[in-house]
Write a structure and sequence with these properties.
It contains 3 helices and 7 strands, in the order βαβαββββαβ. By secondary structure, the protein is of the alpha/beta class.
Length: 142
């Protein structure tokens, strides 16, 4: 059963949310942990893809957008709008508005919420879902 962590950001900016995701992904990459990032839309996936190239000078995190074919093993981060490929990613970063369809395929699920009312409401729904499913949940207010 994965550990669930919620990160509550003080800003209401999608850009800040994606920037924080980049920092978490960089940390996971340094610890040699494969990650899958679940997004709501292709546009959101593309925004994160672009940001991973530019969020920090000198930083490089091998990544790709998931298009249904098995990801290249050298890519530490795979980004997509569908469930992660079977067996891929120790960590799932959920940037979508829904809980992941496959929960037990990951060691950790990281939820990043910004201070936008809609984001908070959807986050509360996911929190209740995890709580009712018996998961251990940690919350980090930033």
């Amino acid at each position: 059963m994965p550990k669930i962590s919620f990160y509550l950001l003080p800003s209401a900016s999608l850009k800040e949310r994606l920037l924080f995701a980049c920092k978490l992904l960089e940390k996971a990459f340094r610890h040699r942990q494969a990650c899958y990032v679940l997004t709501d839309t292709e546009k959101q996936a593309e925004m994160l893809d672009q940001m991973l190239w530019t969020f920090r000078a000198g930083s490089f995190i091998p990544h790709q957008i998931y298009a249904g074919t098995p990801p290249h093993p050298a890519n530490a981060v795979v980004i997509g709008t569908t469930p992660a490929p079977k067996g891929w990613g120790q960590i799932l970063v959920n940037l979508s508005s829904r809980p992941p369809e496959t929960l037990d395929d990951h060691e950790k699920i990281l939820e990043i919420l910004d201070n936008d009312d809609t984001s908070k409401q959807l986050g509360r729904q996911r929190y209740r879902f995890y709580q009712q499913s018996g998961f251990d949940i940690t919350t980090h207010k930033l």
